[in-house]
Design a protein that fits this description.
mainly beta; Methylamine Dehydrogenase, Chain H; about 45% strand; elongated
Length: about 600
């Protein structure tokens, strides 16, 4: 028996995922919006400038973007290009003033939520500032180009300016060679990563471990074009956007910028990136004929292009949490009418499904820790209503179906029913978010896997190896246990399989997929496995039978996981809106 149960798929393949973004009113005079910073889900500040230079405007909202007010303006030839808010009261915006050949960097700040803004004094060798990041209310770093030029001509040298006293004094550092830093992100007052463009060579990556005073140039992945924006969640994990030819690209580091891994993302020109949690990020940009918003809910393992209600180019985005993002952009013609988009993400975004061993039901888990029981499954509790340090990323059932575990992106473990707690990574430093979990055959232990392929073993779970610290073509997105050997498999977003004390049955690592893989499940006797892509495409290996997929359908929301029905040999797929797709398995309702 096969059935497809979702929420209104009707179109052939190729359309965009349904929009989770709405257009919000823009105050009069706020043209050319290009950057935004949200210190909370309610309080945001945005900056822009009428093309090409001036006048510039600062606008603010106190209700999450539903309404905005102009707070400050700079006349003449000015361009406010970036803003960073370390708190709901304290923000710094940077940009450029002047004309070609006589540019001078500018910085303005507020300490009262935008009620008043103060112009700050910058060193005279600062030309254009295009990026700023404030890790604290006192510590900020801005980047751009200097007005000091190489003797042979070309762009001004890279420049970084830093303050440790809230902007009373800024100090500059000139960084050859001739290139342009475009963006900076500081996860702590002393740890920063900056990226940019070098017209005559590879893209620029610079790292600082002393708050922007000194910098070390790092290598970007080969073949990656100009890097445009960067965001750092921790001192080691950052994401940056760039291009490869006419294709958008996201690169990820788990060691503070020393080395990077590439991830493909829809669109052609990405202008901004922001992460509301270790799993939830958004990239905005230009798709060639309209604005683009791409989102991930698994730390970049897979990206989904969202439909947006605008033809304008999207230039900046800020996500205050995994549920709250606001993006800004502008049309190309003068005076560059602006657009503001606000996300409408469901608080109960589904992240996974686990089936009972008898095939009589299943559980559906959401990012907030809620669990819904369907069919013959019983509810053993949830984390619903509890404030979590990180969103839930996966659910796994015990072998007898009398309990389950929830695992969070920070490696926290929550046990219910007869599921026992054997330890977690909660509160410990991780290079990458945890994206999957698998119990041992006797349920006396479990493994956690992070998106960099790192494995964490607890209880009687044996460590047989990992991809942690090794190069991955695409991030790891899930895992499954081999109940026959006691080993495990890891699956990457490109369908690559990494087998540890478990047989290799095949992969799609050398194939071009329509959509990235984001989960896997093993058969009852561990003689095979399935992968699922976020369009619901199914890939079967070993004794895993293909019972159908949604790969040729348009879904209202991406598929985020799958579970095997050990009784029938079929499987269930679950989408982020709770839609269930049953293939060779009974349907017990959606979540």
């Amino acid at each position: 028996m096969s059935s497809v149960v979702g929420f209104g798929w009707t179109s052939p393949a190729g359309a965009l995922a349904p929009s989770t973004w709405t257009s919000e009113p823009v105050p009069s005079g706020a043209n050319g919006l290009r950057a935004i910073s949200c210190a909370s889900s309610a309080v945001c500040e945005a900056v822009g400038s009428t093309n090409p230079y001036g006048p510039s405007t600062v606008i603010g909202t106190g209700n999450g973007g539903s309404s905005w007010a102009v707070q400050f303006g700079i006349g003449g030839n000015s361009l406010l290009a970036s803003i960073s808010c370390a708190s709901t009261s304290d923000c710094v915006a940077v940009g450029t003033q002047g004309t070609i050949g006589s540019y001078q960097g500018i910085a303005i700040s507020t300490s009262n939520g935008g009620a008043t803004w103060t112009t700050q004094t910058l060193p005279s060798n600062v030309g254009q500032l295009v990026g700023v990041s404030c890790a604290t209310t006192m510590s900020c770093v801005a980047v751009g180009t200097s007005n000091t030029f190489p003797s042979g001509g070309g762009l001004g040298y890279e420049v970084a300016v830093e303050t440790g006293d809230g902007g009373a004094v800024w100090n500059s550092t000139i960084l050859p060679p001739s290139s342009e830093l475009r963006s900076v992100s500081c996860s702590m007052s002393n740890s920063c990563v900056a990226v940019g463009n070098n017209p005559s060579g590879p893209p620029v990556v610079e790292t600082s471990s002393d708050g922007g005073v000194t910098w070390v140039q790092q290598a970007a992945p080969g073949g990656v074009g100009p890097l445009i924006a960067v965001t750092c969640l921790t001192t080691t994990r950052c994401m940056a956007t760039g291009t490869v030819g006419n294709t958008a690209e996201v690169i990820v580091t788990t060691n503070g910028g020393v080395s990077w891994t590439e991830q493909g993302v829809p669109g052609t020109t990405p202008w901004g990136i922001s992460c509301g949690s270790a799993l939830d990020c958004a990239v905005v940009g230009w798709g060639g004929s309209s604005g683009v918003v791409d989102t991930t809910t698994n730390g970049g393992g897979t990206w989904v292009q969202q439909a947006v209600p605008t033809q304008s180019e999207m230039l900046g985005v800020s996500c205050a949490s995994n549920l709250s993002c606001v993006a800004v952009g502008a049309q190309g013609q003068v005076p560059n009418p602006s657009v503001i988009l606000k996300s409408n993400l469901p608080a109960a975004r589904v992240v996974g499904i686990a089936g009972t061993p008898s095939g009589s039901g299943y559980w559906i888990a959401n990012a907030s820790g809620g669990v819904s029981a369907h069919g013959g499954s019983s509810s053993f509790g949830s984390m619903s209503g509890v404030v979590l340090n990180a969103p839930i990323s996966h659910i796994v059932a015990t072998a007898d179906g009398q309990g389950y575990w929830l695992v969070a992106a920070d490696g926290g473990i929550f046990s219910f029913g007869d599921a026992q707690f054997y330890g977690s990574m909660g509160g410990q430093h991780l290079n990458a978010p945890v994206v999957g979990m698998a119990p041992t055959p006797d349920d006396k232990g479990y493994w956690l896997v992070a998106s960099d392929g790192g494995i964490f073993s607890f209880g009687d779970a044996q460590f047989y190896g990992s991809m942690g610290g090794q190069h991955l073509n695409q991030p790891v997105v899930g895992m499954a246990a081999d109940n026959a050997t006691g080993g495990y498999w890891l699956v990457a977003a490109d369908g690559g399989i990494f087998s540890y004390h478990a047989p290799f049955f095949g992969s799609t690592g050398n194939l071009r997929l329509n959509r990235p893989v984001n989960g896997m499940a093993a058969t009852a006797n561990a003689g095979g496995y399935w992968f699922v892509a976020n369009d619901g495409g199914i890939f079967s290996f070993g004794d895993a039978q293909f019972h159908g997929s949604t790969g040729n359908l348009i879904l209202n929301a991406p598929v985020v996981g799958m579970a095997a029905d050990d009784a029938t040999g079929g499987y269930w797929l679950v989408a982020s809106d709770g839609g269930i797709f049953s293939f060779g398995a009974p349907f017990f309702g959606a979540g």
